[in-house]
Amino acid sequence: ELGDLALQSGDFAGAVDAYDKLLGKAPSNVDARMALLDALKGLSDAGDAKAQARGLELAKKMKTEPKADASQQRHAEELVAMFTYGDAAKDLADGKRLLAMGNPKGAVDALEHAVGKHVDLEEAQYLLGLAYANPDVGKKDDARKAWKKAPHVKEAALALGVDAYEGGDLDEAVKRLKGAAALDASYQAAFYQLGLVYKEQGENAKARDAWSTAGRIDPKSDLGKWASTKLQVLTGNVNSFAEGQVIDTASEIGIGQEIVK
Q: What is the rounded average pLDDT of the residues 52-72?
């Protein structure tokens, strides 16, 4: 309670002291650890380098803390970016919010500011690509350039793969989609899209393997059901399609575009 009062009043040093004492008695208290993060963020914003370093270390732990709920883990992940990138992280958060609100032009402004301050902020590069690719902005070439600046973001690799597939560059699509799968072996969307590209290339065995993998990752998801349907059509072993499924090129590309979003 003392820590909460200090935090609310802007006494970040007092809050850190209070939460440290509490955690000395109950080190596994997740709420106290999260509140300590916010207090350290306040000190970091005021230029305290030690608080910044300590906050970054704690935030990295909390974003994967099993006892933290999903909202706490997301907040910790946001704080990792804020401790690392400072003001650019705020621009990133604003850009993400504006994209979610359907304002891609506003998102472009915020995200351009973010990458202008930190070109290595890969999540911002990925989101900037999404904003550029939005029809209301219509800068697809700039979108590709932004996605290529996010080599460690699986969604950026997927976006490049889907874009190449739509443009008919199947070899490039395979390269990008395999890259996405390499970043996350359980990335269902990458394997589903790989199946589409391999099928287009006439590589039926590879398409079968890709869709089989996609189906195993999460058979109950929409993509898992689509992968099962595609596999049935490919092998000729047709049991049943999910309600409303129609297999044609237009629907495949539409699924890819939704995945990227």
A: 95
How does DSSP assign 8-20, residue by residue? HHT-HHHHHHHHH
Burial of 26 (0-12, 13-18, 19+ CB in 10 A): exposed
Q: What is the pTM of this model?
A: 0.73
- Asked if 129 and 143 touch (Cβ cutoff 8 Å), the reply is yes
What is the C-alpha separation between 235 and 238, in angstroms, rounded? Answer: 8
Rounded to the nearest 10 degrees, the angle between the axes of helix 140-148 and helix 154-166 is: 140
Tens digit of each residue's pLDDT (9 = 90 or more) over 96-116: 999 999 999 999 999 999 999
**CA triple 146-144-150, angle to 5 deg:** 40
90 neighbors 118 (Cβ within 8 angstroms): no
CB 149 within 8 Å of CB 119:
yes
The distance from CA 252 to its chain's CA centroid, rounded to whole angstroms, is: 22
Residue 192 burial by CB count (10 A; 0-12/13-18/19+): exposed, middle or buried?
buried
86 confidence band (pLDDT: 50, 70, 90): confident
pLDDT digits (tens, 9 = 90+) for 170-190: 999 999 999 999 999 999 999
DSSP category for residue 68: S
